[in-house]
Amino acid sequence: MYNLARIVLWARSIHLWPAYVHEILFSKPVTSESISTLAAFMYGHDVSLGVASKTHIICNPDRNRHYLIPFAMGGYYANFYCRRHVRHIAQYHDVLTGRMMWVNGRDHYQLEPVLPKDQLTPPLDCRPLRHCPT
Q1: Ranges of residues in the chain whose predicted pLDDT is under 50
Q2: pTM of this prediction?
């Protein structure tokens, strides 16, 4: 739980995380789509690769695929970091601003909001956990 506690520190409180992050961490099977979505969220919040991948391993019940998480998430982190001049690589929900933001290459401004016309289809469930039906 040490890694989860470190993650909670930057996000202020786990109940502020969007519902899609909870689903990926605690209930969805490990797929390339779920790892890329979680990697964008973690990278956008400046969480290190080690903490992000260990948190996913600790929380996710899909034990048969845990060995894939560090490698796949590392690939997405490398993609985000090394594509210096590229804009709009991935989207994530920013906990502090409450808006969808773009993950951009290193040489571009990182706090760029996603316009409504550019949001993912279907959109991610960005409601905090406390606002989701039980």
Answers
A1: none
A2: 0.86
